[in-house]
């Protein structure tokens, strides 16, 4: 029997036309009956799909190996190689399409066997074309959603991959190496550091480089949740547990089951809740408010704080037993001023992201003067402040080059005061310090070498010799002889 077309309604009653659903996707029809094959190809093409057809299962499998299809619609009974064999072959492909089987030999056993082999669905003849289109829409919709989730998962994992953490300084290289070593563990982690140093970034890196990467990452800022709601937020509640509890609510620990929970600002947690959190760490169970039973959870805990928990231990505001439960592995993130080698690479990384978001996209860069200012600044707000400064610079600059005038006043004003401090933090040699100082004085004098030499207490010949050495070291000139100073009355 062939597929039956649904009869058209009588033309006596005029009704508003129903707009056809937009469809897309590539479909392979595998059918040995020419009439059925032509009918399915025509109907699916008319519905908006891109369709190819094969007269045998062997030909269909060969097509599927060289062409990427979203859906295969196949008959069951075919000579030499049947639909079951086709499903087995298709399931061996790197990214197998969904398979819908059509057969006149309908039975529960056949359907179960097809699904066990990997078929998405099963339709028995006779059927209406609308029924097949509905199944095709469902299959392709699910496949599109699955591909989107997989793509987003890959993007997230790439974003928080260890290779994307800027770590030119030895301090950050040590942090990245430790994250790599502990990612596969289930041990609790405590991340400390000043505000804005990237504690959540490291927490996500731990999660997305661990066996739990396919599970949820659930973060909560405990300082931002009212104290009266934290218990319900973390552990959940049952309907009627308190006023306005109109329905059951799973807590964040349940949401993070099989994944990681990130407890930011753990130092803000009140003592009574510290005791309840300790029980979760010890028993791996939570009890929602109003519940009579505990609920088992499999969650890795990563906590973070910018407070000194050891001081809080001494004054009794943080439980010692909870501290040692959380502090199995300790990561202390250095402030940005303590890793100046990372400042310019971080800035370039952030500018690449900001520039890509512009319309049209721009290849944002820092002028040498702007780089000097960023290196000399103290960065009390750490990486977060650097990102805000760069975002401001992108908004203010006219082209693709961020100049010193595009930076905020506090960054420009810090240049002189922090020059030596930045030089020490950058572990500059005396020769490097001399070179940078000479170049900055020359820059400040507008390139006038005579005035720069007077200000530096050098004769012009010595200044020219040093500038020549610096230029040759950078590969800007290759002549071994020093540049001769200009005659008296140098306009420079």
Description:
It is a single chain. The protein has 492 residues and is α/β, with parallel strands linked by helices. The protein folds into 3 domains: 26-151, Rossmann fold, CATH 3.40.50; 163-334, Rossmann fold (3-Layer(aba) Sandwich); 337-425, Helicase, Ruva Protein, domain 3. The protein contains 20 helices and 16 strands. The strands form 5 sheets. The protein has a 5-stranded parallel beta sheet, with helices on both faces. Strand 11 and strand 12 form a beta hairpin. The protein is flat and about 100 Å long. The model is unreliable at 4-20 and 488-492 (pLDDT under 50).
Question: What topology does this entry show?
Answer:
Elements: E1 26-30, H1 34-46, E2 50-54, H2 57-66, E3 71-75, H3 83-90, E4 98-103, H4 108-117, E5 121-124, H5 129-159, H6 170-182, E6 189-192, H7 199-208, E7 217-221, H8 227-235, E8 236-237, E9 249-250, H9 252-255, E10 259-264, H10 271-283, E11 285-286, E12 295-296, E13 299-305, H11 309-315, H12 320-326, E14 329-332, H13 343-356, E15 365-366, H14 368-376, H15 382-396, E16 401-402, H16 409-417, H17 419-425, H18 430-444, H19 449-456, H20 460-473
Parallel strand pairs: 1-2, 1-3, 3-4, 4-5, 6-13, 6-14, 7-10, 10-13, 15-16
Antiparallel strand pairs: 8-9, 11-12
Helix pairs in contact: 2-3, 10-12, 13-15, 14-16, 18-19, 19-20
Q: Major sheet, described briefly?
A: 5 strands, parallel
Structural class designation: alpha/beta
The proportion of residues in beta strands is 5-15%
**What does the overall shape look like?**
flat
Oligomer: single chain
Strand adjacency order, main sheet: 2-1-3-4-5
What share of residues is helical? Answer: 40-55%
Number of separate helices: 20
**How many discrete structural domains?**
3
Mean pLDDT: 84
- Uncertain residue ranges: 4-20, 488-492
Query: Under CATH, the topology of the largest domain is which?
Result: Rossmann fold
Distance between the termini: 96 Å
User: How many beta strands in the DSSP annotation?
Assistant: 16
Rg from Cα:
34 Å
């Amino acid at each position: 029997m062939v597929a039956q077309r649904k009869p058209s309604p009588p033309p006596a009653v005029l009704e508003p036309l129903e707009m056809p659903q937009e469809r897309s996707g590539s479909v392979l029809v595998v059918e040995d009956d020419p009439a059925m094959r032509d009918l399915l190809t025509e109907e699916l093409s008319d519905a908006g799909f891109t369709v190819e057809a094969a007269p045998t299962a062997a030909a269909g499998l060969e097509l599927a190996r060289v062409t990427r299809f979203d859906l295969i619609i196949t008959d069951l009974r075919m000579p030499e190689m049947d639909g079951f064999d086709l499903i087995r072959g298709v399931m061996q492909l790197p990214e197998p399409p969904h398979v819908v089987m059509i057969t006149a030999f309908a039975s529960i056993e056949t359907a179960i066997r097809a699904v066990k082999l990997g078929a998405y669905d099963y339709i028995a003849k006779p059927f209406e074309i609308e029924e097949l289109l509905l199944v095709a829409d469902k299959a392709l919709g699910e496949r599109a959603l699955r591909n989107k989730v997989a793509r987003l998962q890959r993007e997230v994992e790439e974003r928080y991959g260890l290779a994307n953490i800027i770590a030119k300084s030895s301090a950050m290289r040590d942090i990245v190496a430790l994250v790599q070593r502990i990612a596969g563990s289930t041990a609790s982690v405590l991340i400390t550091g000043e505000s804005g140093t990237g504690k959540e970034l490291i927490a996500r890196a731990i999660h997305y480089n661990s066996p739990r990467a396919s599970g949820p990452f659930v973060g909560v800022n405990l300082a931002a949740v009212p104290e009266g709601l934290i218990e319900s937020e973390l552990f959940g509640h049952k309907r009627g547990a308190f006023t306005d509890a109109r329905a059951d609510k799973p807590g964040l620990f349940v949401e993070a089951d099989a994944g990681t929970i990130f407890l930011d600002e753990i130092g803000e947690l009140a003592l009574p809740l510290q005791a309840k959190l300790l029980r979760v760490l010890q028993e791996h169970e939570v009890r929602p408010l109003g519940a009579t039973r505990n609920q088992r959870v499999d969650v890795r805990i990563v906590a973070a704080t910018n407070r000194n928990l050891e001081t809080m231990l001494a004054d009794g505001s943080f439980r010692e037993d909870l501290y040692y439960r959380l502090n199995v592995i300790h990561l202390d993130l250095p402030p940005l001023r303590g890793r100046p080698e990372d400042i310019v690479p971080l800035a370039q990384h952030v500018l690449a992201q900001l520039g890509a978001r512009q319309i049209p996209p721009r290849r944002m860069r820092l002028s040498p003067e702007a780089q000097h200012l960023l290196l000399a600044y103290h960065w009390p707000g750490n990486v977060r402040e650097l990102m805000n400064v760069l975002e401001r610079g992108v908004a203010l600059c006219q082209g693709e080059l961020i100049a010193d005038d595009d930076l905020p006043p506090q960054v420009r004003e810090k240049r002189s005061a922090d020059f030596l401090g930045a030089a020490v933090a950058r572990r500059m040699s005396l020769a490097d310090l001399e070179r940078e100082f000479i170049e900055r004085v020359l820059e400040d004098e507008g390139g006038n070498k005579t005035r720069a030499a007077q200000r530096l207490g050098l004769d012009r010949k010595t200044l020219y010799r040093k500038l020549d050495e610096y230029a040759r070291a950078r590969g800007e000139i290759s002549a071994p002889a020093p540049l001769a100073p200009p005659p008296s009355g140098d306009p420079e």
